[in-house]
Structure formats: structure tokens, C-alpha cells
Amino acid sequence: MISSSPARVQSRHSPSSLLFSFLLLSLPFMLLSKPGARGGSNAIRWSTGEARRYCGAVPWPVRRQKIMCEKFPRATTKVREGANLGIQECQHQFKHRLWNCSTADISVLQRLLSIRSRETAFLHAIVSAGVAYGVARACSTGELQECSCSKAKTKPPPGAESAGGEWEWGGCSHNIRFGDNLSKEFMDANEVAADDTGLMNLHNNEAGRKARPLAIKSNMKVTCKCHGVSGSCATMVCWESMPSFRQVGDLIMGKYHGATYVKINKKGSRLRQRNKRHKRPTAHDVVYLDDSPDYCEVDVAKGSYGTHGRKCNRTSAGVDGCQLLCCNRDFVSREEITEESCNCKFKWCCEVTCKKCKKKELVHYCK
Questions:
Q1: Coiled-coil stretches, from where to where (predicted)?
Q2: Host domain of residue 266
């Protein structure tokens, strides 16, 4: 069984370098993934030798992660896919902001993670959530022999009793517990709750996985189908499914905006809000220890790419507007030719065909 408590093992790796190393491993994960069929009884089976070769080829930052890989090799590929999912969602959420979650320069990302800012806090939460989500989804689709569907429920699904007739839980619900536990094993493997950085990272990892209303658990959807003669609902079959990861990303982004600025208490045992007039952080909140750097100018030492050359919206007063994104610098405008779909037609059955049309567009870039 996977332990439900985070491993707290001292090592040479700092908490920030652990997440960096993990992300570095996750970006090219498909190069090492084992090809094979998906679904049901076609779940991939690894021999002991195959698992050891695969896991030995990966330079894991923590030995425990290698052990977990050998125990759950196929699930480990889903862990890495989930980490990638988290990074992609981060880039979507921040695409129009001063910091845009770019991974173009790995050394800059590494410097950013050494600053315990809101952005580092968000990365911990979103990657941890992505890992839990990716593994749970793979369990429900039969891709993993290490886990199965979530156990059947006994409580009636919403609306089942008022609909009359029989009801049952069916389908294949996502195995949230297995996803959460594997996320803990990999994301919390080298975090130590003995200093403020470790406490911050553990807190944000957990916030990404479970904290209400961030958690995948608290956003599960129930889908039901009626079965019966002539459209009647003699039997209602229901199953649970997770929301899209975009919804999870939106929720965590909301927590980023309301993140709590914290410090460690005198006993060194927990984090507390810096300003006593502010609310105490809960398990639901994203927390951070350092102010964010100035992302307007290039500062590699602080993980900033700057915003020079970034595309901006001249007519927007929001974060994507030229005034804010260019940090009150000027911007340049130039005509560019772009392609877009046009003259789309529905073709029976079941296809939509479109032409590609070129158009001139005035595009603006920060100086």
C-alpha cells in the first residue's frame, strides 16, 4: 500500500531544487514511456527487468522516487504526464501576465523556484494537482494495472430517489485516493516540515490536491443515464467523473490571487499570517514567504525574463494591455499576415471542412 503521509527524509536537495528536478524530468517524459495498448484488460504489464531498466534510466532527485517507480512503473509515467499537465495549465493561466510560466530557459526557472513567492507557491499547487489528476484519470480508463476504478458507493446519487425506479452506481469513477497518494509520494518526497520553506511547499502541495474548494474531490461531477422502455427511467445508472483540469486550474488561480503572506511561528512548527489583522491561512489557501520579484525587466538571478518583446493588447485595460504588460514602457506596432479558418461547411456525415484565409493584422509588442 502507498503511505498516506508524506515522507520526510533529509537529503542534499533543497525543496526548491526538488521541484525543479522533478519538472526537468517531466518535460521530456515521452522519450522514456513504454509504448503499448490502452484500456481495460490491455493495461500495460511490466516485467521486473523492464521496470528496473526504465526507472534506472531516469535521474531521480530522491531515491524514494526511484523505489516508487520500480513498484509502480506505469503509474510513474502518468505522474510525469500529470506534472506536464500542471505546467501547461500554469502557462495557460499566466499567458497574459508579467510572469508567463515559461520553461524556455531552464536556468531561469531554477532561479525562480529559489524564491518562495506566490508564483512558486502556485507551481507547487498546480503540479501537485496535475499529478493527482493524471493518475486518477488513468486508473478510471484502465491504463494502469496498479489501480482500478474507485469503490462503489452506497449512498443514492443526487435526484435518484425522486426519479423513482431502481438506481445503481456504475461506470468507472476516478480513483481519487490512489492519485492523491501517488502525488504525495512523489511531490512530498524530499520536503521537510522542519523549516519554513518545507512547511510552505508541503502546504501548497496539499492545497493543490485536496483543499476545499481547490481539491479535485470537492469538484467531482455525478453523471446519470436512464434506462427503460420508451424513454422511461426504470433504472438510473450513475457514475462520478472529475471536472476538466481547466476548472481545477481556475480554482487554484483564484487561490493565487488570494494567497496569504506568511512566516514561521516562534516554535518553528507551523506557518502563520504575517499581518495579524489578516485571516489565518487554512488548508484551502495558497501561502508564500517572499515577495515576488519585478518581472518587468530581465533578471536571471531572480527568475525574470522581463516583458520586452511580449505581445500586448493596445485596447485592453487588463493585465494583457500594453500599459500594464509593457510596464509603462512604449510599444511598437507592425502589420503581420495571419491565417485563420474561414468559410466552414458541415459535410455529411460528420465532418466540418474549412478553408484557410489570410488576413492582415496590426500586432503590438512591448519595447
A1: none
A2: 15-149+174-214+246-302
> From first to last of its 367 residues, what are the pLDDT tens digits of the chain?
444 344 333 333 444 556 766 666 665 443 344 444 333 334 556 666 777 787 888 778 788 888 888 888 888 888 888 999 999 999 999 999 999 998 888 788 888 989 999 999 999 999 999 999 999 888 887 888 788 776 656 666 666 555 556 767 766 666 778 888 889 988 888 787 878 999 999 999 999 987 544 556 667 777 788 887 776 777 888 877 777 899 899 999 999 999 999 999 888 888 999 998 888 898 889 999 999 999 999 998 999 999 999 999 999 999 999 999 999 999 999 999 988 899 998 887 678 899 999 999 999 999 9
pTM above 0.85, yes or no: no
DSSP-assigned letter for residue 7: -
What does residue 295 show for φ and ψ, rounded to 5 degrees? -85, 5
User: Coil, strand, or helix at residue 223?
Assistant: strand
Residue 288 lies in a domain: yes
Question: Are both 288 and 354 inside the same structural domain?
Answer: no
| CB 129, CB 209: distance < 8 Å | yes
- The tally of domains found in the chain comes to 2
Question: Do residues 263 and 340 both lie within one domain?
Answer: no
- Output the domain CATH number for residue 342: 3.30.2460.20
CA-CA distances (angstroms) from residue 292 to 138, 141, 274, 296, 303?
A: 36, 40, 16, 11, 10
Does one domain contain both 362 and 266?
no
Helix or strand or coil: residue 72?
Answer: coil
126 CB contacts (<8 Å, ≥6 apart)?
A: 86, 87, 89, 90, 93, 208, 249, 252
